[in-house]
UniProtKB/TrEMBL annotation, chain A:
It comes from Lacrimispora algidixylanolytica. Residues 5-244 form the ABC transporter domain. InterPro entries: AAA+_ATPase, ABC_transporter-like_ATP-bd, ABC_transporter-like_CS, MacB-like_ATP-bd, P-loop_NTPase. Belongs to the ABC transporter superfamily. This is ABC transporter ATP-binding protein. It comes from the Bacteria.
Automatic annotation (TrEMBL), chain B:
Keywords: Cell membrane, Membrane, Transmembrane, Transmembrane helix. Residues 254-366, 646-759 form the ABC3 transporter permease C-terminal domain. The keyword Chloroplast does not apply. Pfam families: FtsX. It is found in: Cell membrane. Signal peptide: none annotated. It is a multi-pass membrane protein. GO terms for cellular component: plasma membrane. The keyword Cell membrane applies. This is ABC transporter permease. The chain crosses the membrane at residues 247-271, 300-321, 341-361, 417-436, 642-662, 694-724, 736-756.
Length: 252, 772
């Protein structure tokens, strides 16, 4: 499988009130094209920072990250923005939509940056995606007129609009009730089946059990990895048990 | 703790705190200065007029007055306490040379007097009555101020040598608005010069009670006494003395209003920015049960400190500045004014500024009530209400670039926020354009027609003398034989008496002759063409309450002549009260004769002025442009300076406010910027959105400002010009400076500020503002 993301020895240090805190400490990982990887770990283990660094939103202090063969550290701010807009879809834990745009405009926002001439086609695609996500009728709603789950679906639509190579999702179901969370995970699985790679941070073992691999983080490092030989509905129960065993073993 | 919070806050936003402090100090200094100057000016004028014993009623007369008739009138009239006739020896400017400076180019009527024995004294700069010795010359202070004369200079008057011994204050003619200036010499020297100039007489009265002035004036006119020249009364002298420094005070007050406005905008933007930044903390304070008033106090504290410091500094500055600003008043008018009153008023002014600031800060802080604890903690910002997004949607935008569209959409969504910025641009455009257009208008050749002067090339003016007719005849003969002259018109000014609606008789100066050769600007109607017609200047028409078609009745020893008003015209010459008619009159002496001349093409006006100056020694010759620049030179220069200062001030204000506004917006929109960046918008994209917002505001502001300058500004400038007697004022606009340079300058300033201001977008880190 061709490597999409390759990260080696990443270090990220934050300055917190004059004291340095190492959030990522020589973390290394790689993600193949179309692969579904989950990241688990206790709070403060560096999971969210890992996603921010891999997407180019935060620069790593040391180590190398290549995306599709290109070194992120050699990219300008504009090139990193282009990368996020065209090849990476990012889904945040809290829906991060702009308050002054309605739902469909929020979804169209990244795509219309470059392709305004194809506005009609882009709008059609957004409407199709919204239909698929079950929020087709909410296009013209203000963001304070819809529920958290619906906002999260809108966020996923926005991430999918450019047909990205990978979706980076930071606890996308963390703030949702279990029914909505399950629906969202079904959507993610579907997206992955269509060939989009998925790197998903989660606390929920049931979510992690859907992945091909689960990476376990602690103190800014990848401390363990779990690979599932079988996937699908039948294997889900077995995988869930393996994840929970690993969590117990690592004390997560 | 309270003090530490305030100190930290001020130190954290050092630049903006300093700018706010500077503006508060400037506003306090200017208001205090205006109060100090007002008290000083009124006190000094009163002091000067009391010391000089200014006449309550002055009648200037060009012919020898009948002294015994005047004396018996003064004795008979119970209001009169003192009466005198002073001589004023008018000497041609070219005959007066002080040091290396000749007064040949002076538009003032310069003349010589001796010291009065009973009242209307000419005073030295220390307020004493001057008694010059032979060979000593005392020069009006106006010539000291403009550097024409210095103490110790040698002066030559018609070949006679003098030494400038000092400067004098003249309670009548000190002001530049007074068209005559009196020099003081000894009796002996005066008698030697007496035959070289034309004599004017000042018939002066002092009354028991100034309230009787109106009745006295009527009695004087009814008696048919000397009235061959302008009449000036005590209140008018006072007004003339006050007007130039009064205008300075008015300008100071206007500038201070502008400075207060800028200080308010600084405070507003800084406070809004701070509240956005602190929204989460404010939410927490509310959540733990602190009262809104307590939180408000934290923020009010900073401005109580800044305002207090600014006002104290401003007060100090005003005391320092007042010494410089008072220098002119002290020199021209003298010392005076109640010091305690001046200081009290200045302190009241400063306190008023302080209070205004605190009230305004408190007003801005009302937004605290709108902050919901839960919202502020969850979103880290203040929720705005009433935003509609549905009208302008990205999904329906088919034409505009996405960044431009987002910028424009933002402005339409938050109209109230951007209205402040819009008003700054409108005010800036207005402040730049009105003085600029006024300057261009009064320096344009068309403006002569507002002055009551037709568009001729040169003017020959002859003051009344005994052989008037002969001189006019000689001049006309010369003009007729001069091939360089294409047209000329002889206009003779005479004094008549008109009956007002109330039956009162008022003196009226009428210029007789053919007025169709060089017509002036008529507000309504046209020039007099028939014998029975009269045209009135705007001020005269207003005073006589006449309109076109009405009848003006002239009375002369019981005889009545009826004239129909055929036109009303703008005039700012001779105090603005003039009239024009074409009937022939041989019964009265001319006050003066004016001959307007139009030269053939390609004839040099300057050369002709020099030529006529030599051959017509008895007349004053001026080229029309020279005449306008001389009469209006200082005004044109002042308006020019005001235009330049207005432009610099407006551009500075725009730059500062745009920068502050962007800073505030960046603080407010950190989250949105982070979201934009996270989905792949570059810092340049976001800067482009900011530039679009400001470009939209700029375009709208410049258009509105230009329209406002050309309507309201024109009306305001017209009202100013109208107070001098001109009407139906219209701007003569220079399209390049008004419609190209001004928008470009304003645009450049706003876009520059927006460009540099929005560079802060780069520093907004996604991970710091999207809280997970």
């Amino acid at each position: 499988m061709k490597k999409l993301i390759k990260a080696e020895e990443i270090v990220k240090v934050f300055d917190q009130g004059g004291e340095s805190q190492t959030v990522l400490s020589h973390a290394s990982l790689d993600i193949g094209e179309g692969e579904f990887v989950a990241v688990m770990g206790p709070s403060g283990s560096g999971k969210s920072t890992l996603l921010f660094v891999l997407s180019g939103m935060d620069p790593a202090d040391s180590g190398t990250i290549t995306f599709d063969g290109a070194d992120l550290s050699n990219m300008s701010e504009d090139e990193l923005a282009d990368l996020r807009r065209t090849k990476i879809g990012f889904v945040f834990q809290q829906p991060t939509l702009l308050k002054n745009l309605n739902i469909i405009d929020n979804i169209l926002l990244p795509s219309l940056r470059d392709n305004r001439k194809e506005a009609k086609w882009i709008k059609k695609r957004a409407e199709e995606l919204m239909e698929q996500m079950g929020i087709g009728e909410l296009a013209d709603r203000e963001i304070n007129q819809v529920s958290g789950g619906q906002l999260q679906r809108a966020g996923i639509c926005r991430a999918l609009m450019s047909g990205p190579k990978i979706i980076l999702a930071d606890e996308p179901t963390g703030a949702l009730n279990s029914k909505t969370a399950q629906d969202i995970m079904e959507l993610f699985s579907g997206i992955n089946r269509e060939g989009t790679a998925l790197l998903l941070v989660t606390h929920d073992p049931r979510v992690a059990a859907r992945a091909e691999r689960v990476l376990f983080m602690s103190d800014g490092r990848i401390v363990s990895e779990l690979k599932f030989l079988a996937r699908g509905r039948e294997a889900l129960e077995k995988n869930l048990i393996k994840v929970m065993e690993k969590m117990n073993e690592l004390g997560i | 703790m309270f003090r530490r919070i305030i100190r930290n806050d001020i130190l954290k936003s050092r630049t903006v705190s300093f700018i706010t402090l500077v503006f508060i100090a400037a506003a306090a200094a200017l208001v205090s200065l205006a109060a100090l100057l007002t008290v000083h000016l009124t006190g000094a004028i009163d002091g000067l007029m009391i010391q000089a014993k200014t006449p309550h009623f002055l009648q200037m007369n060009t012919g020898q007055p009948n002294i015994s008739r005047l004396e018996s009138f003064a004795k008979k009239n119970e209001s009169v306490t003192e009466f005198q006739v002073l001589e004023f020896l008018n000497v041609e400017g070219s005959e007066i040379v002080i040091g290396a400076n000749s007064l040949a180019g002076s538009v003032q009527d310069n003349g010589f007097s001796t010291q009065s024995s009973s009242f209307d004294y000419l005073l030295s700069l220390d307020g004493t009555v001057i008694h010059p010795s032979d060979g000593e010359l005392y020069v009006p202070i106006a010539y000291g101020r403009d550097g024409t004369a210095q103490i110790g200079d040698k002066a030559v008057i018609h070949g006679k040598q003098f030494t400038v011994k000092g400067f004098l204050r003249d309670s009548q003619m000190n002001s530049l608005l007074a068209s005559s200036k009196r020099f003081l010499i000894s009796e002996h020297d005066y008698n030697e010069l007496k035959n070289f100039g034309s004599m004017e007489y000042l018939v002066e009265f002092r009354l028991k009670n100034l309230d009787d002035l109106g009745a006295f004036e009527t009695a004087y006119i009814n008696e048919g006494l000397e009235a061959n020249g302008p009449t000036v009364t005590y209140p008018l002298f006072k007004m003339m003395n006050a007007v130039s420094d009064g205008l300075m005070i008015a300008v100071i007050l206007l500038v201070s209003a502008l400075v207060v406005l800028i200080a308010f905008l600084c405070i507003r933007f800084t406070l809004l920015e701070k509240m956005e930044e602190d929204a989460r903390e404010i939410g927490v304070m509310k959540a733990i049960g602190l009262r809104t008033l307590d939180i408000k106090k934290l923020y009010l504290g900073k401005y109580t400190a800044l305002g207090g410091a600014g006002c104290i500094i401003g007060g100090g500055i005003s005391l320092g500045l007042s010494k410089i600003a008072l220098k002119n008043i002290r020199l021209t008018i003298g010392d005076g004014g109640n010091k305690t009153l001046a200081i009290s008023l200045s302190i009241i002014g400063i306190l008023l500024i302080y209070l205004l600031i605190l009230v305004y800060v408190s007003h801005v802080l009302r937004r605290f009530h709108k902050i919901s604890a839960a919202q502020a903690i969850r979103f880290g910002g203040i929720e705005e209400t009433g935003k509609r997004t549905n009208r302008l949607t990205l999904s329906n935008n088919m034409f505009l670039n996405t960044n431009v569209f987002l910028g424009i959409k933002e402005v339409f969504q938050r109209k109230r926020l951007y209205a402040t910025m819009l008003s700054v641009v409108v005010v800036s455009a207005f402040i730049i354009l009105v003085p600029l257009n006024l300057h261009h208008t009064i320096s344009s050749p068309e403006f002569g027609t507002y002055m009551g002067i037709g568009r001729s090339d040169l003017i020959i003016r002859m003051q009344n003398t005994s052989n008037d007719d002969q001189m006019v005849k000689e001049t006309v003969q010369m003009l007729q034989s001069d091939k360089d002259v294409s047209q000329y018109a002889v206009l003779t000014s005479k004094r008549f008496t008109a009956r007002t609606i109330t039956g009162r008789e008022e003196p009226i100066k009428i210029e007789l002759g053919n007025h169709s050769i060089f017509p002036v600007l008529y507000v309504t109607g046209k020039e007099p063409q028939k014998q029975g017609e009269i045209a009135l200047s705007v001020l005269n028409a207003k005073e006589l309450k006449k309109q076109v078609g009405d009848i003006v009745v002239l009375t002369d020893h019981g005889m009545e002549t009826q004239l129909v008003v055929c036109g009303i015209y703008s005039d700012i010459t001779n105090g603005g009260k003039t009239a024009k008619a074409s009937f022939v009159d041989d019964s009265k002496e001319a006050l003066w004769n004016t001959i307007c001349v139009k030269l053939s093409q390609d004839v040099s006006v300057d050369k002709k002025v020099g030529e006529y100056g030599k051959s017509l020694g008895f007349a004053k010759i001026s080229g029309i442009n020279g005449y306008i620049t001389q009469t209006f030179g200082p005004t044109i220069r002042s308006v020019g300076k005001a235009a330049a200062v207005g432009m610099v001030a407006a551009l500075f204000m725009t730059l500062l406010i745009t920068l502050l506004m962007i800073k505030m917006l960046l603080a407010k929109e950190r989250y949105s910027i982070a979201v934009m960046k996270s989905v792949g918008y570059t810092s340049k994209d976001i800067s482009a959105q900011y530039l679009s917002r400001f470009l939209l505001i700029l375009t709208t502001g410049v258009i509105l400002g230009t329209v406002l300058a050309n309507t309201l500004g024109e009306t305001l400038a017209g009202a100013l010009i109208a107070s001098f007697g001109a009407a139906s004022f219209q701007f003569v606009i220079d399209p390049i400076s008004a419609y190209l340079v001004t928008p470009l300058l304003l645009g450049g300033t706003v876009l520059l500020a927006a460009f540099f201001g929005s560079s802060g977008v780069k520093n907004i880190k996604i991970s710091q503002h999207i809280k997970e």
